[in-house]
Amino acid sequence: MKEFSVTVLGSSAAVATDDRNLTSHLINHCNSLFLIDCGEGTQFRLRELRVRTNRIKNIFISHLHGDHFFGLIGLLSTMHLMRRTEEIKVYGPPLLEDIIRLQLKASETSLSYSLIFIETQSEGEEVIYDDGRLTVSSIPLKHRIPTTGFIFREKLQPRHINKEAVDRFGVPIIFYSSLTKGMDFIADDGEIIPNGVLTNPPDIPRTYAFISDTVYNEDIVDSIMGCDLLYHESTFSHDLQHAAHDKMHSTNVQAATIAKLAGAKRLMLGHFSARYDDLSAMLSEAKKTFNETIVAEEGVAIYI
Ligand SMILES: [Zn+2]
Ligand SMILES: [Zn+2]
After folding, report:
1. pLDDT given at position 188
2. Which of these is catalytic: 18, 37, 67, 188?
3. Is 19 a catalytic residue?
4. What is the pTM of this model?
């Protein structure tokens, strides 16, 4: 199966701690790299992990709280200083382009590459990226300012040729393309060889849902139904559910409840308040509601 992985670069809410950086996730899908959010320090985490930033072509920003995008201008500037020429697309809320362009203007920087902004909106789910193998949709979340989550969905791919079977039946290569689309093969003597004999089913498409800062909100459940890995913010443990509500954040148990309602296969908690040094209680409490839960561990790739 082709690679589809998530590496958390930062898992702290609001301020960084000794052990935790600010929000950013690196997605590898079939060797294409995507960045979601870019808290301060993200470029240093990428450097530690020896990620060549030239490979990142699409950056998704969930909202304009500083802990989710203050690292963006630094990363974009470094790419310029490294003489990047490859275009970058940045998807985010409307004001993001104004902020970044003003920072570039103030420093009289004319980028070595083209930077394209695609505005996200907070009205409903929308496909904002499609490369034929993968789509990325934005979905509105409920937070203090306009915020979206991002859902990475693999598209159903063609069927796999069964090499041994096509050789056995002497199918010419010219027919392979139609076989992968599900068509049968008719031999010279008129015999119909069913598609299922000559091909194997395609890989089951996988889904990663990134649910950024949000108050508990069951409205998102339909959009993330059945996802393979759900990342959901978990700023507080459940004893602080009132504080979570007031600040428009979620607790560990609320994240676990969303995972359960959505029938997610796995849940990853992140965006932890700096008040928590040890996350073991955070994790064990969430597991009582949804057992397949992990806490984000920075720098470790999770395979979907
Ligand atoms: Zn945040
Ligand atoms: Zn926020």
Report:
1. 87
2. 67
3. no
4. 0.94
